[in-house]
Write a structure and sequence with these properties.
The chain is of the alpha+beta class. It contains eleven helices and 16 strands. It folds into three domains: about 120 residues, no CATH class; about 100 residues, no CATH class; about 70 residues, no CATH class. Strand 15 and strand 16 form a beta hairpin. The longest helix has about 45 residues.
Length: about 400
């Protein structure tokens, strides 16, 4: 009995311990939710499938974005690619420049080709030169795409000063260049190859160097102080102080053209171009009278000179035909009793059929021959004398008429 009681006490004690330690308690219904396995089932398993899909989509998106970027970079690279890599257009630019240069060299002077505000211009035709004109004249092959091309006549050194230009040493002087606008820039070529590319603002700045608009053009009055100053600068240039018989001085605000002779030989007529530099005049092109084609000749050396300042006559065409004395005209003056002695003639200058006189008393006379005989008549001014000859010949004989 005693052993039985002890056994019961031990059994009760064990039950108490098991109850206290919860060793025999069943798991609660939501134990799975607290267990790591339950969390893995809810979060990892479904979530793992979503992450893999997202990773796949992200990879595809990155790949597509990369392709788009490559296409964008490729397109951007094409737009920024130097124009010269477009060999067909590059060759066309060079061909056009070479054709224009050759035509200018062979025919330009006779046709008054010149740089007008930087572009190749035909003075006698009154228009800018185009590639189509070169094709018609046989200097450029037909079928080339020259849309938008411009022909320039400039100093290569001026172009070379701009960022992006690459002018070869053989094209630094005055010559023809071809240009075309592309993507906001102007691409240029010389007759021998590429000359670089410059931005539009630089292109306009380049052409502005050849601007020929320097104010109103007019004939300078002999009563002005500037008239005398210009003649003094001619004296300095010639290295002697002399009296001149001036036919006319024409000018704008930058350049002046003087037609004159010495008092010792009225037939030796000269023509000088002077430039005004802050009120000081300088002879920049002497002896225009020697140039058969003065428009092109002067333009080569002074491309910003406005050729409209030049007189309408060409003195080179009259070389050897101007006379200091015309016997038939003098006889007509005697015949009309305008003079009784040659000593009354202060000035005379003539051609084969026109003559102009100014006497010591200041009176003016003209004489004209129709081929058979001379007639003489008084005129009131140099302008009246000019009109007299114009009516009878259709030409400008101002070079023999003394400026009032």
């Amino acid at each position: 009995m005693r052993n039985k009681g002890i056994f019961c006490l031990l059994l009760a004690f064990c039950v108490f311990l098991m109850s206290s330690c919860n060793l025999s308690s069943p798991l609660p219904p939501d134990a799975d939710a607290a267990d790591g396995k339950g969390g893995t089932t809810e979060i990892i398993v479904p979530g793992g499938k979503t992450d893999k899909a997202d990773e796949k989509q992200a990879a595809e998106k990155a790949k597509n974005d990369e392709k788009k970027n490559e296409k964008s970079d490729s397109k951007k690279g094409t737009q920024n690619k130097p124009f010269w890599q477009a060999s067909k257009v590059y060759d066309t630019l060079t061909a056009v420049a070479a054709a224009a240069q050759q035509d200018y060299k062979v025919n330009g002077a006779k046709r008054g080709w010149m740089s007008k505000n930087g572009k190749l211009y035909g003075y006698y035709d009154g228009c800018y030169i185009t590639p189509d004109m070169l094709v018609k004249e046989g200097y450029l092959e037909s079928g080339l795409d020259t849309s938008g091309f411009e022909l320039l006549l400039i100093d290569g050194e001026d172009l070379a000063a701009y960022n992006g230009a690459s002018v070869s040493s053989g094209n630094m002087n005055f010559g023809v260049f071809a240009a075309v606008k592309q993507n906001g820039k102007y691409l240029l070529a010389s007759p021998s190859g590429k000359a670089g590319q410059i931005v539009q603002s630089d292109y306009q700045s380049l052409l502005a160097k050849y601007n020929q608009s320097h104010g109103n053009i007019g004939r300078l009055s002999s009563a002005t102080a500037e008239y005398g100053r210009i003649l003094n600068y001619i004296c300095l240039y010639e290295g002697r102080f002399a009296d001149y018989y001036v036919r006319e001085i024409r000018k704008d605000n930058k350049y002046a053209v003087v037609v004159f002779s010495t008092t010792g030989n009225t037939a030796n007529i000269k023509e000088y171009v002077l430039k005004n530099d802050n009120g000081f005049w300088e002879v920049v092109y002497p002896n225009v009278q020697m140039d058969a084609y003065p428009i092109t000749a002067i333009n080569r050396l002074i491309p910003d000179f406005n050729v409209e300042v030049l007189p309408k006559y060409n003195l080179a065409a009259w070389r050897g035909l101007v006379k200091a004395e015309q016997g038939g005209a003098v006889a007509a003056m005697f015949g009309k009793y305008y003079i009784t002695s040659k000593t009354q003639i202060q000035y005379q200058c003539a051609t084969a059929n026109c003559a102009y006189f100014r006497l010591t008393d200041g009176s003016r006379y003209v004489a004209y021959s129709n081929g058979d005989y001379w007639t003489a008549a008084p005129v009131s001014s140099d302008i009246a004398a000019r009109n007299y000859f114009m009516e009878r010949t259709g030409g400008d004989y101002s070079f023999i008429i003394l400026d009032d």
